[in-house]
Write a structure and sequence with these properties.
The protein is an alpha+beta fold and 406 residues long. The protein has two domains: 2-46 and 264-404, no CATH class; 75-253, no CATH class. The protein contains 14 helices and twelve strands. The strands form two sheets. Strands 2-3-10-5-7-6 form a six-stranded mixed beta barrel. A two-stranded antiparallel sheet has the order 8-9. Strand 2 and strand 3 form a beta hairpin. The radius of gyration is 32 Å and the shape is elongated. The model has no long low-confidence stretch (mean pLDDT 82).
């Protein structure tokens, strides 16, 4: 080990350049694994933000391929479906059934404009998604029934349209309709995939009629009485909507139902596949790094031919020379692995700060311990595999010929 360390120290610049491919490969693997774990954690927390007892009914049949994703634009969920699901005889375990419509629109106030996402729902959205206003109050069910032109805005919307002036009681214009601001939400960031700081919530009846000009729903959210009741709730929902749509064959469903567990599983599979694909791409640099190590070790064997001959002349065996050069290759890649893990962790943490501060995502830093250990193991393996041929070539040198080498 001392001999190997001295050999590496004698050629610091060359050693550093030799392991550069390994450093980049390991750093990329750590960075991608960390970002993948962070993305999965964020997605799971967004799903949980809707509550563990919620079931989401979406228009169109469940996507099973790229061509099926157009189904999510279907207008199959109508008012009759909402009324059917709200009947206790249809879905006994449903505590609340909440419709959702949404779209991107421009809001204006005294010359100031802001592009926001407007959500239409019932007043239950405040409780289910924990949207308690910091100023004013949420709209009521009477506002929903009367198509009231009232709205609750996010903190970013308030800041852009009103600045430091009070917003509650003022009217903002959306699609030539004047909505009275009744509440302002505190800064919350992402809630269930949506940034409510840059959004506004109004009665769904008003949003359908005055803003979006539609008569269907983009989502129906059903809150079950308990987590244990979710499977039964899903069965009742499917039976109720099939009956409402006159569907007898489940294969012809024009809607699909998703639970938090379904979403978590699906998104977990997607993020894992993407992470593995990216890691596989990053692993190519490890192979390149290994080839570079083999090349440099072959050069080292040629440069140190007389040294090898002298060692063999004074008693070094085939195994001694083989072990010496294998140690050098393994230590090079081990150093590269340690540096790669450190750089990968640093850039992952930096990405977390950027995503949290600039993009305003609730992104949490995750250090992939398993990936780090695996990366170090792979780095050592790369050193041993690609260092084996140069080491064997050195060990097979004839000592007399080696001593004559100039």
């Amino acid at each position: 080990m001392k001999i190997a360390l001295r050999a590496i120290a004698r050629n610091r610049s060359r050693s550093a350049l030799t392991v550069l491919g390994v450093v980049i490969g390991i750093a990329a693997i750590i960075l991608l694994e960390s970002l993948g774990a962070g993305a999965q954690d964020l997605i799971l927390r967004q799903i949980q933000g809707m509550g563990a007892k919620t079931v989401v009914v979406m228009p169109g049949r469940e996507p099973r391929g790229p061509s099926d994703f157009v189904q999510i634009l279907s207008s199959s969920l109508k008012e009759r479906d909402l009324e059917s699901l709200r009947r206790k005889t249809s879905v006994p375990s449903a505590e609340e059934v909440m419709p959702i419509v949404f779209g991107a629109e421009t809001a204006s106030y005294r010359g100031e404009t802001f592009r926001l996402t407007i959500f239409g729902s019932s007043s239950a959205i405040a409780r289910i998604l924990d949207l308690t206003p910091s100023e004013g109050a949420f709209f009521s069910e009477d506002d929903v029934k009367g198509r009231g032109e009232v709205i609750v805005i996010g903190d970013k919307v308030r800041e852009e349209l009103f600045g430091d002036a009070p917003a509650v009681g003022e009217r903002i214009k959306i699609k030539n309709r004047n909505f009275r601001v009744v509440g302002v939400l505190p800064r919350k960031g992402q809630v269930s995939f949506f940034n409510f700081d840059e959004a506004a919530v109004a009665p769904y009846t008003a949003v359908q009629s005055y803003v979006l000009g539609i008569r269907h729903f983009q989502r129906l959210i059903v809150e079950a009485s308990s987590e244990d009741a979710i499977p039964r709730t899903v069965r009742d929902i499917e039976a109720t909507i099939r009956n409402s749509h006159g569907i007898t064959d489940p294969e012809k469903d024009d809607f699909h139902v998703e639970t938090p567990a379904d979403l978590a599983e699906t998104l977990g599979v997607v993020t894992n596949v993407l992470t593995l694909f990216l890691v596989a791409v990053a692993a190519i640099s490890l192979v390149v790094g290994g080839i570079g190590i083999m090349n440099i070790m072959l050069v080292a064997v040629t440069e140190r031919t007389r040294e090898i001959g002298l060692r063999k002349a004074v008693g070094a065996t085939y195994r001694d020379i083989l072990t010496q050069f294998l140690f050098e290759a393994a230590m090079l890649t081990a150093f590269g692995g340690l540096i790669g893990v450190s750089l990968g962790a640093f850039f992952s943490f930096l990405a977390t700060l950027v995503l949290g501060g600039v993009v305003a995502l609730d992104w949490r830093f995750t250090f992939p311990v398993t990936a780090a250990l695996l990366g170090l193991g792979v780095a050592l393996l790369v050193g041993l595999v690609f260092g084996l041929y140069p080491a064997r070539r050195a060990a097979k040198l004839n000592p007399i010929e080696a001593l004559r080498y100039e």
